[in-house]
Amino acid sequence: MATLKEIARRAGVSASAVSAVVNGTTHTRVSARTRERIEAVIAEVGYVPNDAARALRRQQAGTIAVVVEGLENPVYKELLLGIYEAAEAHGWAVVLGDTAWMRSGSHFLARLLGQGSIDAILLRHEGLIDEEVLGHLRARPTPVMLLEQQSDLHYPWVAVDDLMAGRMATEFLLQAGHTDVRFVGGFDESRTSNARYEGYVTAMKHARRRPRVGCFTGFGVEAGTLGFSALRSGGKLPTGVVVNNVMSAAGLLAAAADDGVDVPRQLSVVGIHDAEIADIVRPRLTTVRLPMRALGIRAVQQVSALLEGASTTLGVITEERPELIVRASTAPPSR
Fold it and tell me: What fold is seen in the domain 60-160+292-317?
């Protein structure tokens, strides 16, 4: 197999330039033309980098951990695809876990905290991880990148624009003529839920409508069922509802159907996040699609920059915005 020196000789460049291209480092500047020449030689000789040796030289394990709240949640599909795509480009393997496994004394937590076993942790925990576990993470040098807006934990973070998503969903209902719009789902301890609710409040106030207290019933299908029951117990149903996530919205649709409520004639429903289930339920669910794949790619890129000591671009991603997907669960109010 060709060596870096052989590739450098054929390309007419230095070995350090070849190393920079192969390893994706930023310490050696390589022009676009030089990079193309090096990549052409790499393709010609069929060079395959030795990831194990490369990780050893960098004193890295070549593995990152991704830990999310509720692995069964389908909204993570696009996030994980983005993470795996970017991790593959960086030569990393990915260990996947659920925050439910992150409890003191667990084997999974021991693996995360083990010296040299994980290069970095990408974490989305909705503010629901035990403080003792967070203390263990803070005590270790392994970089942690949050996949949500939680700057008060003093970790770097990247996030989608949850506030915009909540505002976009609410504005869509208001523009359709709804005046009584409610917010259902999520936890009031969850920063993503609070951001989406804040978007709802902002839109209602901008339209000179009184925002109502959020009905925080949790996540998942059951949360939507509970949310509908809470709305129904309040007497007159609103004509529009923004649901914190797509699975809860599916549960709310089912509860409305069981109760004989016609969606969208009597109740319009918008779910935040988009997943295949939005096209499966009846009526098909109007959603606000969040750029989760872009979030996954950005997270890996930024944690790589942290490990390399390069500059980072943190915060809410702006290259892709939330997108309204109009389906059959919304219509102008009939009353």
Answer: Rossmann fold (3.40.50)
